[in-house]
Write a structure and sequence with these properties.
- The complex is a heterodimer of chains A (about 525) and B (about 220).
- By secondary structure, chain A is α+β, with helices and mostly antiparallel strands.
- Chain A contains ten helices and 13 strands.
- Chain A folds into three domains: about 210 residues; about 70 residues; about 190 residues, Histidine kinase-like ATPase, C-terminal domain (Heat Shock Protein 90, 2-Layer Sandwich), CATH 3.30.565.10.
- In chain A, the strands form three sheets. Chain A has a six-stranded antiparallel sheet. Chain A has a five-stranded mixed sheet with strand order 8-10-11-13-12.
- The longest helix of chain A is centred in the middle third of the chain and has 61 residues.
- The radius of gyration of chain A is 56 Å and the shape is rod-shaped.
- Chain B is an alpha/beta fold and about 220 residues long.
- Helices cover about 35% and strands about 20% of the residues of chain B.
- Chain B has a five-stranded parallel sheet, with helices on both faces. A four-stranded antiparallel sheet of chain B has the order 6-7-8-9, with helices on one face. In chain B, strands 10-12-11 form a three-stranded antiparallel sheet.
- Classes of the chains: A alpha+beta (about 525), B alpha/beta (about 220).
- Chains A and B meet through helix 6, helix 7, strand 8, helix 8 and strand 10 of A and helix 3, helix 4 and strand 10 of B.
- Chain A: It catalyses: ATP + protein L-histidine = ADP + protein N-phospho-L-histidine.
Chain lengths: ~525, ~220
């Protein structure tokens, strides 16, 4: 449902019952006041001669009186304090006008002429421009048995009788078929016995009286209409802004959230726009992150493919050459064989490095921390590379403490890190060179693991570049001129992940010394 | 024939290769081409089991678990997955060692030998014999080819430290920290001086070997 329609309907749904309830309350108050006024004036009338007239002719006595004006109409301005002029014309009032003005039609007046009936009282004077006169009140006498001698008296019901017994006043209201509202008040007179012990005061409110239905449309309809229009008009700019915001959001989502939405003002709509703006930035950041990851993955895959395919091609070439020599009966060259083994070995290391890189890329949750014996780790690393180092005439040496050196860490990653450094030393080592792994512990409960070689070493600027955190596209290429690429980056990342320290320095033998320093496992680990 | 080894490996070429290398290294190898959930009595009399984790039918770790229920035979795990969790799990279930594919045959044989050697490591011996050397650790006496050699306290300490771990390199820093007199200023240079004196006293046997980049090691020497 549109906002405006909803607002209008809501306004109507709230206004109409409220207005109706208010009218009801007003009616109720007015009726109660009317009851009191009628009771009061009837009593006064009966006490000032009405009783005598009634008792003298109970068969025919009835009074048709103009009721007093209710209090809220008194200021309205009739000539007298009661707002009543004299008796209606042609209505003699032998008993003198009662305080509550009216014409009394007793037996002594002979009959109730038509001229004495309602219409004259509803004359122009009574419906003056300033006020609305209440309709006339008729009085009927009843005796102690609630029987009236007057044939025209209306029948009493239990409600009235109960009421008058209980509180002195019985009240009954009902609507006639033509919509007129009948108000009966049964009053107990302040005397006992006689045919006029009770008096029924009846007032009939015509159907077109404002007291019966709702106030005229012109009174409440116009303000309501104005209010509604004002609301609908006031809602206009709001709806406009919401529509604009909707369009902008659609446009933004259509542009992969690149297009911003405008935030204007400080109200709820601006707040909504701001919230969307924040959501948009969040989505953009996520998308950028995703994009970067995918790009990394693509680069990674491309580089990997290249990096694996190259040694594989070399290996195939070596194998083909060997086959050729076998066919021709030539002797196999040890160099060829060693190189083939080296390529296969390198590929194995590369694939392990790629696995390690993938885990490092995924972050800490992929890392398992468990006790690791560095002595055993060093022994395994040397055992792995010995078959490659020996034919190259590179001596692999190690010195570890006599007892196991326990640290907390991810064994696979740590082994890969140490392995990378050692393999680099072997691959770049000179013939008859050395690579040594020295593991020592200190009294400060730290370990110091050094991989020392007497190879060509790495220049200063290159060393600091190698310790940069991120892989950088082709700079991370594993077969880059120095060939350190992925391997040392993984070393660096693994060390960082474990909170250890990695140092690259020239070794005292002219090559490179790579140092790992970290805490030993404490008994609480 | 050497120790008997059970190889559990489903891959035909790899299995026959490993089998060949084990036999070549002097082991008596038995090859199972699939894993089995063993119960007591089904395991042949072997000194070591080489178990591939990825087996059809039975997962290697399940087999290890079943095996450990009744046997303490050393188990060397082979796996293509270089995954820490796998290793930790395997070690928890009682595996003794773990090798990730690919590996060189030499590496495997070395690891098998190391594993078989392990239980012979006993408490510290009182007398160590390496090549022509006989070192009485408790009696503080050294003989070269039966002839006693007089050593200073530091020189004996040095030799004893190497003798406790024959064939293993001991780092210079460790020797400086544990052998040299802490009262006097001990440096690696001082250590080298002591070593050269020691070598001179031990004669031409060349049992104290310099390990490049690491320190020193006691070896049988090139017996002349």
């Amino acid at each position: 449902m549109k906002l405006r329609l909803r607002l209008a309907l809501t306004a109507v749904a709230v206004t109409v019952p409220t207005a109706f309830a208010l009218v009801q309350v007003e009616h109720s108050v007015r009726r109660r006041t009317t009851d009191e006024v009628i009771a009061g004036s009837t009593l006064a009338q009966m006490q000032s001669g009405g009783r005598e007239r009634c008792e003298s002719a109970p068969d025919t006595w009835m009074v048709r009186t103009r009721s007093p004006r209710p209090p809220w109409e008194r200021e309205g301005g009739g000539p007298g304090p009661d707002g009543v002029g004299g008796p209606p014309p042609g209505a003699p009032s032998p008993g003198g006008p009662p305080p509550g003005t009216g014409s009394e039609m007793g037996s002594e007046t002979g009959a109730r002429g038509p001229g004495n009936d309602g219409p004259p009282q509803r004359g122009a004077r009574d419906q003056g421009p300033f006020g609305r006169r209440m309709p006339p009140v008729q009085l009927f006498p009843f005796d102690g048995q609630f029987v009236s001698r007057n044939a025209q008296a209306p029948a009493l019901d239990d409600d009235l009788r109960e009421g008058v017994r209980a509180s002195g006043v019985g009240v009954r209201r009902y609507s006639k078929e033509d919509g007129a509202l009948v108000q009966d008040l049964l009053l107990r007179m302040p005397w006992e016995g006689g045919p006029c012990e009770y008096v029924l005061a009846r007032r009939v409110e015509p159907a077109d009286s404002p007291e019966v239905g709702l106030p005229p449309l012109s009174i409440w309809g116009v303000p309501t209409l104005i209010l509604l229009s004002a609301m609908v008009v006031a809602l206009g700019p709001v709806v406009q802004r919401l529509r604009r915001l909707t369009e902008e959001v659609r446009a933004s989502s259509g542009s992969h959230y690149r297009q911003p939405v405008t935030v204007r003002g400080h109200d709820e709509i601006a707040e909504l726009a701001r919230a969307f703006q924040e959501a948009r930035e969040e989505i953009q950041a996520q998308m950028a992150h995703q994009e970067a990851r995918e790009q990394t993955l693509r680069d990674f895959l491309a580089n990997t493919t290249h990096d694996v395919m190259t040694p594989l091609t070399v290996l195939q070439g070596h194998l083909a050459a060997m086959q050729q020599r076998l066919r021709t009966g030539d002797a196999l060259e040890p160099d060829l064989m060693n190189s083939a083994m080296g390529e296969a070995h390198y590929m194995a290391s590369l694939v392990h490095n790629l696995g390690a890189a993938a885990r490092l890329e995924a972050g800490a949750p992929q890392v398992q921390h468990a006790p690791v014996d560095l002595n055993a780790l060093v022994s395994r690393v040397l055992g792995r590379h010995q078959p490659i180092a020996r034919p190259r005439r590179i001596a692999l040496e190690s010195g570890v403490p006599a007892t196991p050196t326990w640290v907390m860490g991810d064994e696979t990653l740590l082994e890969q890190a140490v392995s990378n450094v050692v393999l680099n030393g072997i691959r770049h080592g000179r013939e008859d060179g050395h690579v040594a792994v020295v593991l020592e512990t200190t009294r400060q409960q730290t370990f110091h693991l050094r991989v020392i070689d007497d190879g060509p070493g790495i220049p200063e600027e290159e060393r600091s570049r190698l310790l940069e955190r991120r892989f950088r596209g082709n700079a991370a290429r594993t077969r880059a001129p120095q060939g350190q690429g992925l391997g040392l980056h993984i070393v660096n990342n693994v060390v960082e992940l474990h909170g250890w320290t990695l140092t690259l320095a020239p070794s005292e033998y002219g090559g490179l010394e790579v140092g790992f320093t970290g805490p030993l496992m404490t008994p609480t680990d | 024939m050497g120790d008997r080894i059970l190889l559990v490996e489903d891959d035909e070429p790899l299995g026959s290769q490993i089998l060949g290398h084990l036999r070549g290294a002097g082991f008596d190898a038995v090859w199972w081409r699939e894993g089995r959930l063993l119960v007591a009595g089904e395991l042949p009399d072997v000194s070591l089991v080489v178990l591939d984790l990825m087996l059809p039918g039975t997962y290697g770790l399940d087999m290890l678990k079943a095996l450990r229920a009744f046997s303490e035979v050393p188990v060397l795990i082979l796996s293509a997955r270089n995954d820490t969790l796998d290793k930790v799990r395997a070690l928890k279930l009682g595996a003794d060692d773990y090798m990730t594919k690919p590996f060189w045959p030499e590496e495997l044989i070395e690891r098998v030998r190391a594993r078989l050697r392990r239980p012979t490591l006993q408490k510290e011996p009182s007398v160590v014999e390496v090549g022509p050397l006989r070192i009485d650790l408790q009696g503080h006496a050294v003989q070269v080819r039966g002839r006693p050699v007089e050593l200073t306290r530091v020189e004996f300490g040095l030799l004893a430290a190497l003798a406790r771990r024959p064939q293993e390199a001991v780092t210079r820093q460790w020797l400086v920290d544990h052998v040299l007199d802490p009262e006097r200023e001990g440096t690696e240079r001082t250590l080298d001086v002591h070593v050269s004196r020691l070598r001179r006293k031990l004669g031409p046997a060349k049992c104290v070997e310099t390990v490049w980049g690491v320190g020193y090691r006691l070896v049988p020497g090139e017996d002349a």
